Amino acid sequence: MNAHTQVSNYNFAYLDEQTKRMIRRAILKAIAVPGYQVPFASREMPMPYGWGTGGVQVTASILGPDDVLKVIDQGADDTTNAVSIRKFFQKVAGVETTTSTEDATIIQTRHRIPEAPLQEDQILVYQVPIPEPLRFLEPRETETRKMHALEEYGLMHVKLYEDIAKNGHIATTYAYPVKVEGRYVMDPSPTPKFDNPKMHMSPALQLFGAGREKRIYAVPPHTEVISLDFEDHPFEVQRFDKPCALCGAEQVYLDEVVLDDRGGRMFVCSDTHHCESRQAAGHRGEMSGEVLS
Amino acid sequence: MLNEATTLEGGFSNPVLNAQSVFRAVMDAMAKPATIVEVDAVVAPPSRLGRAAAAVACALIDVDTPFWLDATLAESTALRAWLAFHTGAREMATCADVAFALIGAPATMPPLERFAQGTQEYPDRSATLILQLPGLEGGTPLTFEGPGIRDRVVLAPRGLPQDFAAQWKANRKRFPRGVDLVLTTGDAIACLPRSARLVEMEG
């Protein structure tokens, strides 16, 4: 229980108790009004804005000593942002960490939702850079707040329509706007739109923290999350021509990896845990390589 | 004279981890409306306040959030001193503008619309009401649906106001404005966020 005293002079999970209470109250209001962005007094964290300070503050406020934490950055457990946040919580909270989606009670994520379906009682914490879906259409906070208050979302449909007029299809591929429970239009954070359907009726609680913009919002479990679209241009997710080059998975989100300067490239799972567990189970892709005997 | 020992004692023995565990129970209950959740209520409040209600108060109320007590609870000087010491929050004389209200006799409580509802722009600026009930089971069954609820869920709390169903429907109608309820009894809680819709059952 005293594992956190490894780093003395810090409170459990870094934040002071008054800050945690303030964030906890914001989280409860966010859950009560799904998709609405609750302002909160975001603190300076020992990492720069843009590195997930919002998600870190949400995680720090909900985390307990029995939690098992997983952190992913673009689906990967082993990239800088994920590794440093995982180490941060090991240090200041002494919690167990994991790379396994199934074993985690809290998953903090930057820009992906794991491929393995989430379970009841799991919590997904998103790091959000720009929480306001209308911000690039209307820069004034006073105006966007009024638009949410009056449920005035016509501008967003105009934006999607302009996509169709210019490109023949909705060209928005990430941060694709959704409507929560038929009321609030919400930015799902810059996840690829491939992940939008996973938010709909998810059994897990989804919490969103934007540190620089000082907003927290939430989607409770079993909540309707609908991607905006048009009758004649229905919402579609990205499709990939080939399966993952390492594990052969289909119906997953793939990253493009450039192999050389002659146009060589491969497509691999962005969810590293999903890819590794498939390979461990014997699945092979076309470039997984065989052990030379 | 107040017994000082009673005032100073009975709070969280481990303020950091106790507050975390109570908050997680409340968050869990808020995310799964009308579902009964056990709280590890490690507090010993003066007799008039239940353990779960006191634990929720200690976990969430602080110097930034003024609170209000209904007449039943406000009668107890010991309780007021205990809450003041363990939360550090100011008690207000009227219920209209507080962030939290602790209600000892929900059957005769002021109507929900008398508490802070938030505004259309800032619906989060609304009150959270902590109700102390004789029981969360065995009362009139209320069926809810909405965010956090797969299909439907039934809760039958005892001791709510007679016209609770009508009041809750009016509260839901004000969405996104409205109050959120934490129903407590003994060591258990169930939450009703304003998003929970009361379903009219036939027959």
From TrEMBL, chain A:
Keywords: 4Fe-4S, Iron, Iron-sulfur, Lyase, Metal-binding, S-adenosyl-L-methionine. Transmembrane segments: none annotated. It catalyses: alpha-D-ribose 1-methylphosphonate 5-phosphate + AH2 + S-adenosyl-L-methionine = alpha-D-ribose 1,2-cyclic phosphate 5-phosphate + methane + 5'-deoxyadenosine + L-methionine + A + H(+). Its EC number is 4.7.1.1. Catalyzes the breakage of the C-P bond in alpha-D-ribose 1-methylphosphonate 5-phosphate (PRPn) forming alpha-D-ribose. Belongs to the PhnJ family. This is Alpha-D-ribose 1-methylphosphonate 5-phosphate C-P lyase.
TrEMBL record, chain B:
This is Phosphonate C-P lyase system protein PhnH. It holds the Pfam family PhnH. It comes from Mesorhizobium retamae. One of its GO terms (molecular function) is lyase activity. InterPro entries: PhnH-like_sp, Phosphonate_metab_PhnH. Keywords: Lyase. The keyword Lyase applies.
